[in-house]
Amino acid sequence: MAGTVQAEPLWPGGPDIGTPAIIPPVPIVAPCGTTARMCMRLSTNEAWLMDNGKVTYGPTPISHGRPGYETPPGVFKVAFKREDFWSTMHNAPMKWAVFFNGDIATHIGPIEEQSHGCIRMTPEGAEATYRYLNPGDVVEVVP
User: Fold this and answer.
1) Which residues of 62-96 are buried (b: 16+ CB within 10 A; e: fewer)?
2) Does residue 64 carry a catalytic annotation?
3) Rounded to two decimals, what is the model's pTM?
4) pLDDT per residue over 66-100, tens digit each?
5) Please, are residues 119 and 64 in contact by the beta-carbon 8 Å criterion?
6) Among 5, 19, 74, 139, which has the highest number of CB atoms less than 10 A from its own CB?
7) Residue ranges of the chain whose pLDDT lies below 50
8) Choosing from 32, 39, 64, 118, which is the catalytic residue?
């Protein structure tokens, strides 16, 4: 009787047949320039936190301005941020607010609804954004 035949490895020194190969993860790419510390894409309602063109957080879901109150695309700088801000214009809280274009800010809000121009985020996304960004950081908004 002949002995059991062993299959050759897929490559010398590699795993045996039947062992799944390790495939490196595909890096997440955001549609903004390398100077952006935050990137937002309005068409897909996504945002990313960035460092030298590499994603450090995200994508995280967002919503933006409704018709007549559109969030404008462009490159902006963070003006200021407040952990607990009260909007006198809308008589509403803006937790984890980061202002980057006049009175437009990122903050916690229902992402299922459009806003009056602000970027609404989940609690986790808004807090991560607030903690990551500082005045002067570049925020890029693409269509």
Assistant:
1) bbbbeeeeebeeeebebbebeeebeeeeeeeebbb
2) no
3) 0.82
4) 999 999 999 999 999 999 999 998 899 999 999 99
5) yes
6) 139
7) none
8) 118
